[in-house]
Amino acid sequence: MEALIKKAKDGDRHALATLIDTHKTIAFNLALKITNSEEEAKDITQESFLTVLENIKKFRNEAKFSTWLYRIVYNEALRVIKRKSVPIEGKHADALATESTDSLEQRESRQRLDAAIQELNENERVVILLFYMAEKTIKEITSITGFTESNTKVLLHRGRKQLKERLENEHQEKS
């Protein structure tokens, strides 16, 4: 990955395209989870990659490339939300991509999980998504979001607890 980043910084468009292809799905999903709008998520992802293109030479390798990119996506998504003053607590029908090989039960489980994630507050949702979906460490999440390490841990703990409670309550209601 470091060689690819170096090539991209040196102006290799193919290397930059490879970096973008590698991270485009997770960047889009992060934007989608924050905005709950596919159109806005597409725009945010595109703007974020334009920012990467314009600033790749400034990337200092102090963090992972993905952390730098997700920070850009996160900030762009927050900028869009603030500009529109739209609450991000809404529902999104199918934000977690499901593969055609998933069984009906797996898809339903993913939809229930997605719905439960959408019910979390913005900060808890972002931390949960970065930790589990983007597989970021606590340190990387703090770098992306600007939260303190202890705040990130608290948000992750609260988010997990609320997800567990919501999913258990839903299961009990069905029984």
UniProtKB/TrEMBL annotation:
Q: Which residues cross the membrane?
A: none
| Span of domain RNA polymerase sigma-70 region | 19-85
Q: Keyword annotations for this protein?
A: Sigma factor, Transcription, Transcription regulation
- The lineage's top-level taxon is Bacteria
List the Gene3D superfamilies: 1.10.1740.10, Winged helix-like DNA-binding domain superfamily/Winged helix DNA-binding domain
A single MF term (Gene Ontology): DNA binding
User: Can the keyword Chaperone be found in this entry's annotation?
Assistant: no
Query: Locate the RNA polymerase sigma factor 70 region 4 type domain: which residues?
Result: 110-163
Among InterPro entries, the record links this protein to: RNA_pol_sigma-70-like (IPR039425), RNA_pol_sigma-70_dom (IPR014284), RNA_pol_sigma70_r2 (IPR007627), RNA_pol_sigma70_r4_t2 (IPR013249), RNA_pol_sigma_r2 (IPR013325), RNA_pol_sigma_r3/r4-like (IPR013324), WH-like_DNA-bd_sf (IPR036388)
Q: Which biological processes are named by the entry's GO terms?
A: DNA-templated transcription initiation
Tell me which Pfam families the record gives: Sigma70_r2 (PF04542), Sigma70_r4_2 (PF08281)
The similarity annotation says: Belongs to the sigma-70 factor family. ECF subfamily.
Q: Please give the NCBIfam families that the UniProt record associates with this protein.
A: sigma70-ECF
> What's the protein name?
Sigma-70 family RNA polymerase sigma factor
